[in-house]
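One chain shown below:
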Amino acid sequence: MTFKLDQNAKMKRVGSLATKSGIIATPFFMPDATRGFVKSLDREDLLAVGVSPMVVNTYHLYLQPGTELVKKAGGIHQFMNWHSPLLSDSGGYQVFSLIHKNPKMGKITDEAVFFKSPLDGSTHIISPEKSIQIQFDLGVDMMVVLDDVPPNSYTKEKIQDAVERTVLWAARCKIEYEKQLKKRKISKENRPLIFGVIQGGSYADLRRYCAEKLVEIGFDGYGFGARHIDANGNFMENIVQETAKLIPEDALRFALGVGTPEDIVKFVQCGWDMFDCVIPTREGRHGRLFIRSKNKPYETININNGKFREDFGSIDPNCDCQLCKNYTRAYLRHLFVMKDPLAMRLSAMHNLKFYMDLMRELQKNI
């Protein structure tokens, strides 16, 4: 697996990533197939709008349907019948969110994370080593180390503690990664890529410290951890840009959980390569659609609004997705009013097509 940076102009980068499941042009966006599927969409829907790499979640797949079942299926690609690249998030964000919201659900120590399943209350332990083992069992093309994901509202002292734990766990993940390659006899050409995650909240010195320690350990790519906006909802451009500069030029830069179209554009301008988020599909399922606009890059409409009841125009005349080619705004609104699943499917497809087109435009314009 190799990452080739073809062009690096004023921080903005374009390149290609070769994985065992295919080549990906960068920058790229990955829809979240969190539990092994994208809600309301099947394989043909995803292929129709140009989706290639996607993200699955270690924590969720570990709890349901369970790692053993996925292994019996032949790995997550076979289980999903998706043969393009897949990246597994470590699940750190989900398990930490669970505990931060309700401390009774578990505890975090330097050794591991202890938590109760929100599904049935059963107790579980995920250590850095176990996280890597699960991700190897899934058989993904790219994996992410287990990291401590502190809320940005934490004090600097608490965020510093999370940074130290993130670095400690990253080192353990890398050791376990090397062990698993040998144990499973995986060749250099077929090995999954592994990503460290840079934490530090809004503190530049903590981000620098975390990045330097992770680079010493050595990873194929590095992620921007936690939120990229401050307590007032402002985009932390300086932190985002300076963090990118701390990452070796030949390593991938992964903006985890980003995001909105405008945030993706800003991250690309700051030198980031990879993105994932539930926004396009989640917003689509609720009737919020991204459309191109004459006066600005894009706008969003809520098709549930009454003003669309007699609007017989296309959702977006500049889009050639199944929704825009075949149905009117009035008809889509009717589907939502009637709560027909087709409404969610068509809208999610449209939003993903918008995102895929956006990434192609960014690749072309760099």
The chain has two domains: 2-277, 285-353.
